[in-house]
Amino acid sequence: MGGGDFVLFESASGYALLEVVEFEEIGSSTEQMQQTVADLQRFSRLVKLKAFLPFESAEQALANINAISEHLVPEELKSFLELQLPDVKKSSKKSKGFGLGLIDAMFASAVQEATGFPCKSDDTVREVLRGVRLHLPHFVKELASGNMEQAQLGLGHSYSRCKVKFNPGREDNMIIQAIALLDQLDKDVNTFAMRVREWYSYHFPELVKLVKDNYTFAKCAEFIGDRTTLNEERLPGLAAITMDEDVAAAVLKASQSSMGMDCSPVDMVNIMSFTKRMVKLAEYRLQLAEYLQQKMATVAPNLGTLVGDTVAARLISKAGSLVSLAKCPASTVQILGAEKALFRALKKKGNTPKYGLIYHSTFIGRAATKNKGRISRYLANKCAIAARIDSFIEEPTTKYGESMRDQVEERLAFYDTGKAPKKNIDVMTAVSKALAAEAASGSDAKKPKKDKKRKADEAEVAAEAPDEKKSKKEKKEKKEKKEKKEKA
User: Fold this and answer.
1) Which residues lie below 8 Å from residue 91, measured CB to CB, with a gap of 6+?
2) pLDDT, tens only, 315-328
3) Alpha carbon distance 245, 218 (integer Å)
4) Residues near 428 by Cβ (< 8 Å), separated by ≥ 6?
5) CB 3.0–4.6 Å: which of 208, 287, 338, 392 could bond 353 by disulfide?
6) CA-based nearest residue to 272, from 236, 226, 208, 204
7) What is the pTM of this model?
8) Would you say 21 and 45 are in contact if contact means Cβ atoms under 8 Å apart?
């Protein structure tokens, strides 16, 4: 930077434009520059405040900082610079021009493109702006007495709330919470179901052997209640729950000759109350699974199609977000969830784990023991590709996930039969062409409607044209008759 240079500092209170008067005195060495920047007396001789544009409200400050973070030039800043900086054409005629220094290189190029002023961003500019940030209350007296810190705190909170509100993560936070709650519900429902079986078996022990499923057992216990009230009239309702008439008949027969203890009304009320809560919790677990499936179809359709919604959601939850999972290499995706085993193996110099959360995928379970490590590595590779596609694709689709699932199937068959699978580039190219063809056919389907409308308009204009010609001819004839009468 030489004489006639300016620097722009974006603060929480407004824009400060400062002129570098005698920059040569700072020196070229970094240590001397840092000493000059830290010393207020020396720095104030070298840098002078030219103008300060304060923000009128907190909303205006937030709007400006959002624009700057996206490398956009606000209209207030553009007008301020055009008013305060010298004219580019006049300064270019002189031997000595001017330059505007900014701390961000991308924002400097945006300002130069929007205003035409020569802008730059280098280490020298950053050192000067560091001194401006340090001594800004000295240049702008209104920012002293803690006003600058108060403005920074308020703008920081507003900017953080704005970024959290407009999260570009496409709702993967909802998936993380849903899968965590789903895993917790699985544990709780199993625990409560065992408690129901044990508690109700004091009254009706034969029901445990006849109905094996926990949820069905709880529904039957809720329907039966006191076993002495079960009769032939209630048999259709019991058959609807068990979905087997023979089992319902066996339950009825066992209730008539049960060796269970009799319960008092108070005990039965407590047993039924807990059983109903357990049934409601199991039903909510099914609703939550459907909700997770819908979210996965929106956020990560290809990954969910490849390994299943539950495993895909666990991978996203373990990585922290879909974008974080997309940034992970395939080797990390392969052992995601087996970190303890990995570090234990590294510490003891043993064999590292072959798979983590992807072990719950059906592909690894179907592979032979000697091929589990190979198929887990191949599946992790496909999961990494699917996560990147879901994270950065504009229109969600399951085509890539279906094709990659077929590739994994072919790889499993290759391990058994030796039949060579398709190459990945051929499969991805085919899917890309198919999606492009679908998009083209969709646009072609809209064209006939436009053509029909255009033809209808042309026909309407053509139908109106003879009438217009006819009306013009009649007007001309009337005018000629009128002129003849006037002459006569």
Assistant:
1) 4, 97, 98
2) 999 999 898 999 99
3) 18
4) 400, 403
5) 338
6) 226
7) 0.61
8) yes
